[in-house]
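Protein Record: Sequence and Backbone Structure Tokens
======================================================
Tokens: labelled as protein backbone structure tokens, with as many entries as the chain has residues.
Question of interest: how does this chain fold, as expressed in backbone structure tokens?

___
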Amino acid sequence: MATIQTPSTSKVLFFGTLGVYSYAVLSNLLKRGVRIASVIIPGAEPYQMPDTVTNIPIIKQPAFTTIETLAIENHIPLHYVLDIADNQLLDALKEYQADFILLACFPYKVPEKIRLLPKKECVNIHPSLLPAYRGPHPIFWQLKAGEKRMGVSLHRATDELDAGDIILQAEVQITAGMRGRAIEAKLGEYGAIVFTEVLRLYQVNNITLKAQNNSLASYMSVPKHQDFTLSPQWTARQAFSFIRGTDEWGRSYHIEIGGSTVMIKTAMAYSPSASLTKSYELKDNYITVQFSPGLITAYIDSITPKTETK
């Protein structure tokens, strides 16, 4: 998909979180000259510490770059949201007379009275090829399913989560073993490209909406402890990519193999076709596990051999 050279004059209200995906979308929109009228963030306004000299409150800056710091650096007004239905927020957003609202990983269901504010559309940029993988953590579930092909979908925001008509999609290839943050950053970059293209399409009145096929839809909820279980029937590529892409969650990965229960912390390497003569091999704090096909080498938390029956 080509990068748009001439930025739209449309005013955009950007709703996101302090995570990597929202940051990647917003930062790439700013690089492309998209006019962001305001940034809306869930949660309370950051702690303010009075300046002992001037008595002017000083906002404590986060330790890493987020959409909050992007907004401050680019002199974009910020709004912090505890109650998305608050009429004070509604009144404040009306003042911008925005053309679009763009949601990027925003965790609250946006009520209709806010969705109707923009002159053109309230849209969501979702990190999957809808209607597959609706829900709050689509990257996790795509990695667990062994998807090599991910993508982003720009769709109308509606009362039903991630179910609105699709305006534009883009496929994104993910390499084996990409870290979760790198995947979020890549998908966020493509999300910005897709939205910028949609701004151009609105300018030339060339928008086509496509209803989602609900028979193909899947909705995935927040991952639970058991969702970090590995299967020796997976390919080594799938296991390696799942572990590397989700190990920032800080969970251990459980696998039953060769009569033992193994808890894996993270994966170090994989071979798509190599094999062992047994289910696994141990060396110091590392384990090499046989998958179907291929091997992964991983750092282990613990291993519990099967108890012999007397």
Residues 1-6, 47-63 have pLDDT under 50 and may be disordered. The chain is about 25% helix and 30% strand. Residues 180-203 form the longest helix (24 residues).
